[in-house]
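Incident review: delayed structure delivery

Summary: a single-chain prediction request sat in the queue longer than the usual turnaround. Root cause was a stuck worker, restarted by the on-call engineer. No data loss occurred. The affected request and its eventual output are reproduced below so the record is complete for anyone auditing the incident later.

Affected input:
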Amino acid sequence: MSSENPAKIKVLIVEDEETSLHVLTLALQRHNRQLFFARDGEEAVRLATSERPDLIVMDMMLPKLDGFDATRRIKSDPMLAAIPVVALTARTGDFDERKAREAGCVDYVTKPYRIDHLRARLAAYLG
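Output delivered after worker restart:
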């Protein structure tokens, strides 16, 4: 009888700021998780298409293509539409949260955040 390893949970982290990227990596680095990284919205759309992650953590203020538009593009693809996208941003206004949710984000986390709080919020989408 062979024991199979369960499939790795794929998480796409979209962040252009080095310190935030490092903190997110530490927060999400766990057994059986495969992390992918994008530094701009265009790269996020490409990686979402090629890797089909189980979760996307999306900064909203990105170069080339912002997180709002990147999320819209991802959600418009029927093969990617079911992937939960969690907005992560320094923007704290109600307008920005509404805009992120309208783009297709399932949650909205503002910076700065506590690591344990972020882990708990993301765990809800990782099963």
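Verification: The radius of gyration is 14 Å.
Action items: add queue-age alerting; document worker restart procedure.
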